[in-house]
Amino acid sequence: MIFLSLILACAAAAATGILFPPGAWYDGLRKPSFTPPRWVFPVAWTTLYLLIAWAGARLAVLPGAGLAMGLWAAQVALNTLWTPVFFGAHRTGAAMAVIALLWLVVTALVVQAFGLDIWTGVMLLPYLGWLTLASALNFSIWQNNR
Amino acid sequence: MIFLSLILACAAAAATGILFPPGAWYDGLRKPSFTPPRWVFPVAWTTLYLLIAWAGARLAVLPGAGLAMGLWAAQVALNTLWTPVFFGAHRTGAAMAVIALLWLVVTALVVQAFGLDIWTGVMLLPYLGWLTLASALNFSIWQNNR
């Protein structure tokens, strides 16, 4: 049930990708050379959301995981917020602020997770890696499409 | 720190109200007689978000609160999703599905909270009450503005 509730939280974040698709606006942006092809994003996010929900379910049953679960909740809310801001409102600067905050929250979550259970910390590293790439991409698009 | 992380999660949800304001589209909708005046919404949500974060911080330190924290995370993600779907994409039917799911998640959270700590359950009742009104409002707007 814990895993299902966290999958539902991730599904809310994932739904933004369907409700606010990249579309013609995204195709017309000046993007950096390291931009992954579009098909990579849903594949990466599906994998990451499963890992994030699994990691959260492992943390939720550990004693002293209150802060980790608070950070888990904060990351899923910021993750859900990013897509409508970027792809819905086309506010690339505001989206940059959201993803920078998200990166900090996930870094704090990874630190907490490593303190509680090493393997759960490892499970969250791909998320942090992907967010680093996504932040660089957001920054580049924001700077080059004024 | 737990309370701050949950306030941050609620701030992500609250930011949608600023980034996706009601605007002329909302003013032009056919709304039911029980629609509160516009100034009520930010006042109600500010109060509710403080109560929700406080309730979450109380739950987070209790043993056996894993499912409650999972539901807390699910509600904040669905809450963050609703505003861009309704006020951003103007998808009142999809927003109805989101708020119905949110209502169910918050009901489950209230049940969990009452089982862990009665006062925390009581603190979450205004949220459930407001969501009931908001769901009725969303349903009416969806049905009367095809």
From TrEMBL, chains A, B:
The keyword Transmembrane helix applies. It is a multi-pass membrane protein. Its main location: membrane. Keywords: Membrane, Transmembrane, Transmembrane helix. It holds the Pfam family TspO_MBR. The keyword Iron does not apply. The chain crosses the membrane at residues 39-57, 64-82, 94-115, 122-142. It is found in: Membrane. InterPro entries: TspO/MBR-related_sf (IPR038330), TspO_MBR (IPR004307). Belongs to the TspO/BZRP family. This is TspO/MBR family protein. It comes from Paracoccus broussonetiae.
